[in-house]
Design goal:
This protein is mostly beta strands. The protein has a single domain, classed as Lipocalin (Beta Barrel). Helices cover 3% and strands 68% of the residues. Strands 1-2-3-4-5-6-7-8-9 form a 9-stranded antiparallel β-sheet.
Length: 115
C-alpha cells in the first residue's frame, strides 16, 4: 500500500488480490476531510465512484461482463487519518434504484507516524 498526503488530501493506492475479487487491478482511494472521497479501480476491472456525505452520485462501474452506471449513496466518511491513522467509509450501491449492497471500508494504518 502506498499513502500520500498533500494539502490535507490523502491518497491510498494498493494492488487488488484474489481475496478482493479484483486481482489484476489497482485501487486508489482519495479522501478530503469528512465530506468527500473517491474510489478508482483500474486494470481488469474499472470503476470510478464518487462519495460525498449524505449525497447520491451516479458513477461508472466496469466489469469483465460490461459497463453500467451505479448509484452511490454515502452514509458517512470518518477521516481520522491525521490523528489515529484510520479511515472509515460507508455507502450503499444501487442499479436503476434497485438496492445492490451496503459497503463499509475501514483502513487502519500501522505505524502511521513513520510514513
Amino acid at each position: 500500500m502506498c499513502l500520500r498526503e498533500r494539502n490535507n488530501v490523502y491518497t491510498f493506492k494498493y494492488d487488488d488480490t484474489q481475496a478482493t475479487g479484483f486481482e489484476g487491478s489497482t485501487t486508489t482511494i482519495t479522501v478530503k476531510g469528512n465530506d468527500t472521497a473517491s474510489i478508482i479501480r483500474e486494470g481488469t476491472a474499472n470503476s470510478a465512484l464518487s462519495l460525498e456525505t449524505n449525497k447520491k452520485h451516479f458513477c461508472h462501474y466496469g466489469t469483465p461482463y460490461g459497463d453500467f452506471q451505479i448509484g452511490v449513496m454515502t452514509h458517512f466518511i470518518k477521516n481520522n487519518i491525521e490523528k489515529a491513522g484510520e479511515l472509515a467509509l460507508k455507502y450503499t450501491l444501487d442499479i436503476n434504484s434497485s438496492y445492490i449492497s451496503d459497503n463499509e471500508i475501514i483502513l487502519k494504518i500501522q505505524d502511521f507516524n513513520n510514513i
